[in-house]
Amino acid sequence: MADRKTEILEATCRVIARSGAHDLRVEDVATEASVSPALVYYYFDTRAELLSRAFEFADARSTAHTMKHIQTDASGRDRLHAVLFHEFVDAPDVRDNWVIWGEMTASAVFDKALLATLDTWSRSWVKMVADLITDGQRDGSIPTTAIDADDAAERLTAIVDSLGGKIHLGFLDPERGRAILQDAIDMELGTDRESAPTTASAHTR
Amino acid sequence: MADRKTEILEATCRVIARSGAHDLRVEDVATEASVSPALVYYYFDTRAELLSRAFEFADARSTAHTMKHIQTDASGRDRLHAVLFHEFVDAPDVRDNWVIWGEMTASAVFDKALLATLDTWSRSWVKMVADLITDGQRDGSIPTTAIDADDAAERLTAIVDSLGGKIHLGFLDPERGRAILQDAIDMELGTDRESAPTTASAHTR
Predict the structure, then answer these.
(1) Cβ <8 Å between A106 and B110
(2) Residue A105 to residue B166, Cβ atoms within 8 A
(3) N or C: which end of chain A has fewer CB within 10 A?
(4) Angle, CA of B166, B158 and A162, to the nearest 5°
(5) ipTM of this complex
(6) CA A10, CA A21: separation in Å to the nearest integer?
(7) Long-range contacts of B2-10 (CB under 8 A, 24+ apart)
(8) Helix, coil or strand: residue A65
């Protein structure tokens, strides 16, 4: 039973990624999942409930997906690097998550019920990055002094979110995006070759 | 005649800001502008044409609005500061522009006709910030060495776009947002008290 519910949520995410959340009909999700509309309504009381759960599901799946790309024995800095740059990868599932995120943001402006889910999603993304910075500070791969992990995480996720959107829309060359992000990381955390951000090394290319 | 066209575009922006672009009907715009639907169709061939022109109009209006808040005799750095922090202001017209921007981004994913307008909007915003950095470098308020104006503008606008969205959705305390942005500016361009970003001064609070 749990599997069938997951299949419906996966189908909902595919429908959102293909044609948006706004026009999504429960019937389309049922067709996509090869189940009856009645079964969708068995698990989800309303269309709004289905949308909210699908957004939460996309959030959890995205986090799990990102985690899969992290070598758990790598340094905090290397794992941070992997997580941030992963968002620029040209892969269908990464792009789908960008579309779902955008749909969710647009929907939340006019549907207050979605605001809490979006807020949680947004905060968990920043926290994941802040935790990786803290991990790096513990294992010595990121300087411990003069870096506020939470503030740095807000800035780095902001840059990833904005540049990632531009890359996936075809507005920004991915290579340039990566260079701009790398400079941001160096500026926030010092370059790899240094133990502390004592000079404005990020400005030196 | 030009005024009537502008009124229709203004009405379209109000309707988008209030209830989104997706469900927008030409009849609603006509009612909002106190004109007949026929007159709307006299100026705009189709609903898609009306939406595209409204998004362009919002873009131009937003730029003009931002410019109004800039003292033209201020230094490049001060004007840059005014432009960036203006996006965090809690005012109806600033918030409306955030909503229109979000609707445009969400619409452009599924409506390729809007992509070019969004791309232009996005690039002109980054270019405005890059030009202010260059102005500051010319008037001495921003160091000339070791700063790539285009790259810095990509990062600073990314931070403003992302944090601004969070502030207007109520996810981020405006004061914290301003502190995070101020640190980003100091990190990119050196602090006000320095003539060059020779130390990692932004890390020192």
Answers:
(1) no
(2) no
(3) N
(4) 80
(5) 0.86
(6) 14
(7) B4/B35, B4/B39, B4/B43, B5/B43, B6/B57, B7/B33, B7/B35, B8/B33, B8/B35, B8/B39, B8/B40, B8/B43, B8/B44, B8/B50, B9/B53, B9/B54, B9/B57, B10/B57
(8) helix
